[in-house]
Amino acid sequence: MKSFIYIMGVALSVVFCSCEKQGEQEQGTEQGQGEKPEPESPEEPPLVENWDLIEITRAEVGNSNYEELLYLASLAGLVNRSSPEIFLHSGQAYAKWMTEMKASGYTFTKKRLSEITSLFLNRAKGYVLVDDKLEKTYIAASLAGVLDAVILTAALASKAPYNSLQKLADVRDKDEAWLADYIKQHSSQFNLNAIVNNASFPWTMVDFAIANRYPWCSNAKSDGAVLQKLYYMLKPNSPHYGWGVPYNLERMDVRFGCEHNGVYTVPGINTMSLSILSSKQLKPYDRPASPVEVPARTGVHYATIVFSDGDNTSYMLDLFSRNTYISHPRVHEIPLTWMYPPTLRTNMVPVHNWYQKNLPATNCYVGALSGAGYTFPSHHEFVADYFRMTNGMLKDCGMQYMVLMDDAELFTGSSAGSYETFMKRHTGNLPDVKGFLYMNYLGYAKWQGAYFFAGDAPVVSFRYFMKNDDKFTEPHTPETIAAALNSAPRDINSIDAYSAIVVHVNAPSSYTVEDMLVFKNLLNENVVLVNTEQFLELIRKNVKGNRG
After folding, report:
1. Tell me, what's the pLDDT at 12?
2. Which candidate, 47, 187, 280, 442, has a CA 20 to 30 Å from the CA of 497?
3. Nearest Cα to Cα of residue 82 among 46, 120, 118, 106
4. Quick check: 130 and 140 in contact, CB under 8 A?
5. Are 142 and 187 in contact (CB under 8 A)?
């Protein structure tokens, strides 16, 4: 292990001893290709343990003071690389995680921006000059990581004490093609285990990327040829941290990554101080997988409710931890399921620990879509290695069930081209996963409960999609779903007696735990709510199917 902030890079690189195209591999077997030469990762200094953090909030810098926020984030990346020191956060959203960190031994001392600059500016070898609109942040952050530099606008660079620094690079007239050439020429200086971008908040993810020396892709729409070049500089099956759909709209962006070197997305839209949250000083708390207690009732219809916004780690950082969701005082009264990004365990350790400790006994977590990150497995270039990596990550988190998202048809009429054939081929690469829920990107409940078995693991599509949003084409309300469930089939040996409901959370108007408690009261005695672990176990034990 090289440095405390190099966790994800190391964790991923040990898995990729061979990478094969999905069409060239069978269940649990490989036909190796010649390995691509891999650039050496930069050496990092050993971790210097430090439990006394300097704390500063975004508001104290100035919520709209983007140039100083960017400067501070870049300085934090340099400083936190060898010793956790600077903790920049947004205030209330981080209160839970700071409490968790205090329980681990951290203390926090507030300091002003000027004080932090006086303490640490001498750690920078110089600065990278960025444009005033911060549109070239992605280029500046890429170079700052390998040049050990902070990022400054011209206005900041002209002021004391910043004017004492040497200008190491000027990226104001550079573009993504120039950046790709620079990374290729200096590949040994970069950590090519991940790539970063963030279109929404130009100062977030910066400390994490600089601390790790990760390259960036464009914060605006990329040229496909250039983005492909950048992705193939990475090691196979590397994550794209952040958000900003660098290729095109969301669906095509996710497909583009997984089709080009198996790049999968880990959304982290508004995350600050990830270089601290991923500190190796923080030890993950894991709940061991335990036997699932399955209800024994017959003659009822079983339903499961799954809250989701995919692998959105920034929602786990704030939204899902609120008292409208998993902290709701009555959440234990209803068996709910929460999609859970397994990457939290390594790059948001206190967040992971809080969720693990605060899961109600009636609720459960399932691996978010589709496992290690947001990807479409049927398009994933190195899917066998990806699934093996996912299996290990889920096992570390104590999860035995996961959600698959894809844009492939569940059944195509051609057995050779069906998702059933695809999953049966790869079940051996997910030996510890006992069951799957499936959602199609083009319609979350498009397949209305259709299922198959991949080995002994059921793959069950969502029957209903609950979303308080007119933009979606298949909105089901709590009232319409309850009416359908109350008169639904109740033969425990038939898949028709099981309904999975996905609740998409991505806005303040989204359905909450309170809404689900109201929904529960709309159901009659013929409907039994269970969490997804119980739901999939009921199907696995009772529903017949071809388990080849």
Report:
1. 32
2. 442
3. 46
4. yes
5. no
Measure the CA dihedral 422/194/374/367, to 10°.
90
Least Cα distance to 372 among 417, 317, 322, 433 occurs for 433
Question: Which residues lie closer than 8 Å to 347 by C-beta, 6 or more apart?
Answer: 7, 8, 208, 266, 274, 277, 278, 313
Residue 374 DSSP symbol: B
Helix H or strand E encompassing 401? strand 401-406
Rounded Cα gap, residues 75 and 234, in angstroms: 25
Specify whether the CB–CB gap between 429 and 395 falls below 8 A. Answer: no
Alpha helices by DSSP H, 358-454 = 383-396, 419-426
Which tokens is 380 given? 């994933």
Helix (H) or strand (E) holding 211: helix 206-212
DSSP secondary structure, 322-364, as one string: STTTTT-TTGGGS-EEEEE-TTHHHHSHHHHHHHHHT--TT-E
The two structure tokens encoding residue 216: 């960036």
Predicted TM-score (pTM) of this structure: 0.90
3-state secondary structure of 228: helix
Q: What is the pLDDT of residues 338-376, one digit of tens each?
A: 999 999 999 999 999 999 999 999 999 999 989 999 999
CB 26 within 8 A of CB 67: no
SS3 of 443, please? strand
Both structure tokens of 488: 């639904």
pLDDT of residue 474: 52
Are the CB atoms for 457 and 540 separated by under 8 Å?
Answer: yes
Higher-confidence position of 444 and 34: 444
Region of residue 197 (phi > 0: left; psi between -120 and 50: alpha; otherwise: beta): beta
> What is the C-alpha to C-alpha distance for residues 234 and 283, in angstroms, rounded to an integer?
28
Classified as helix, coil or strand, 429 is helix
Q: How far is CA 257 from the centre of its chain?
A: 14
pLDDT, tens only, 32-85: 333 444 556 677 667 788 999 999 999 999 989 999 999 999 999 999 999 999
- 448 DSSP 8-state letter: T
Question: What gap in Å lies between CA 257 and CA 249, rounded to an integer?
Answer: 12
Q: Could you tell me the CA-to-CA distances from 290 to 191, 397, 505 in Å, in that order?
A: 37, 12, 28
% of the chain with per-residue pLDDT over 70: 88
